[in-house]
Design brief:
Belongs to the proline oxidase family. InterPro entries: FAD-linked_oxidoreductase-like, Proline_DH_dom, Proline_oxidase. By secondary structure, the chain is α/β, with parallel strands linked by helices. The chain is built from nine helices and six strands. A six-stranded parallel sheet has the order 1-2-3-4-5-6, with helices on one face. The longest helix is centred in the last third of the chain and has 25 residues. The radius of gyration is 19 Å and the shape is globular. The protein starts with a helix and ends with a helix.
Length: 240
């Protein structure tokens, strides 16, 4: 697998394409992290980090995992860049059932509010890193939670990070959270929309996990319906 990873990383550097490595279950993440950090050492020595790793805020060790890898990259050398995709996570039920089956402590935060606090603290860590080393740090705030987006935007302003610098971007799944994506883009922030690609058998489980296990998606859908209804009513009133 190593020659394949090298070929992939080398090609991404040549084309200037960010390679965001996804996170999985807690029992596979250590191997994923090891390979991703090794790729950072090899390929993240240009002006912009090409290899990004994913960190899950729904884990009790979410911030600890992020800070650990930041320290590793710092130890690898000042020229090595670090990119992070911050997500809440979508394997809650599987993680808890696996922990119960294997008899180890539940790795998932006890409440949704704890996850929100964990996620926002991780965003703060990365934004401080970006403010400190703009040319060697990058982050995508991948969330459908409106409060977290507002928190990130306010923190960027406080730290003096310009939205168009490119080191901080926001991300949502295509077709979801348009009530967040559209105002962000209109305000000058960089927004990515994730487009799942593949067969129905591959894509639908991915989308259903985010709809079923991410309350922000469901709340956001209700919020979008409310905004659309208000806009529709205002236009109907205009034509009366």
């Amino acid at each position: 697998s190593l020659p394949r990873l090298y070929k992939l990383g080398d090609r991404c550097v040549a084309l200037g394409v960010v390679l965001a490595v996804d996170a999985e279950y807690t029992y596979t993440n250590p191997a994923i992290n090891l390979l991703t950090l090794a790729m950072m050492k090899v390929f993240n020595c240009s002006s912009t980090p090409i290899i990004w790793n994913t960190y899950q805020g729904y884990l009790k060790r979410g911030r600890e995992n992020l800070e650990h890898d930041l320290h590793v990259v710092q130890a690898l050398g000042a020229e090595v860049g670090f990119g992070a995709k911050l997500v809440r996570g979508a394997y809650l039920e599987r993680e808890r059932s696996q922990a119960q089956l294997q008899g180890y402590p539940d790795p998932v935060n006890d409440t949704y509010e704890n996850t929100n606090a964990m996620y926002d603290s991780m965003v703060k860590v990365m934004l401080q890193e970006v403010a400190r080393k703009r040319d060697r740090r990058a982050v995508v705030v991948a969330t459908h939670n409106e409060a977290s987006v507002k928190h990130a935007a306010a923190t960027m302003e406080r730290l003096g990070i310009e939205p168009l610098e490119g080191s901080v971007v926001f991300g949502q799944v295509y077709g979801m959270a348009e009530n967040i994506s559209v105002p962000l883009a209109a305000s000058g922030f960089l927004v990515y929309k994730s487009v799942p690609s593949g067969s129905m058998l591959e894509v639908m489980p991915y989308l259903s996990r985010r709809a079923n296990e991410n309350r922000a998606v469901l709340r956001g859908a209700r919020r979008e319906r409310q905004l659309l209804s208000e806009e529709l009513l205002s236009r109907l009133s205009f034509f009366r």
